[in-house]
Amino acid sequence: MVTGTVAGITSALGIPALANWVAAATPADKQNDVKILNTALYYEHQAIWAYSFAAGKLSSTSVGQAVLAVALANQADHKQYRDALAAAISSLGGVPVRAEKSYDVSSYLKSGEGGLDSDVNIAKLALALETDAAIAYTQEAAKLKTPALITADASIGANEAAHATAIRAAFKALGVNLQVIPASFVSADTRSNWVLKV
Length: 198
What we know:
Blueprint: H1 9-12, H2 15-24, H3 27-55, H4 62-91, H5 106-110, H6 119-141, H7 147-173, H8 191-194
Helix pairs in contact: 3-4, 3-6, 4-6, 4-7, 6-7
């Protein structure tokens, strides 16, 4: 299955490149990038929480264990993104947002883009969250002012799309008749092709 970590996030946010930019950056540019990165960090905290929260609801069946394997791999990536984003925010002189005790995913549940009542619906919820993460990262990358951060943000967005692909591949491996990659792009325009309804 397609999983993995974004290689080079640390080097993309590395001290020499980021330190050189920070020294020359305007306060407005720093503030802009801190705001965008803190929004991303908030959603990384949410993703980490969601995978932990849902993991306790998965069954011990082969389907539940397959979903858990993908979830743990994706969550490990989100933890690395969290750490890289927090470091970048601090380097820019900002204060990283802290994780909350819980997060609201009711909008996904209400729209039928997953549920907490079965292994399959938990996987559908994860798919919707990962799809939205891929879309958000690609939309926000262009708003950043730091070239090293733009590169890292785009890399994370690509890996979020890989997370969505891994979840779809797990469905395919479990016998669901679907395209693993249903559209050439992961975007707001193609979102409905990627998510699966309950």
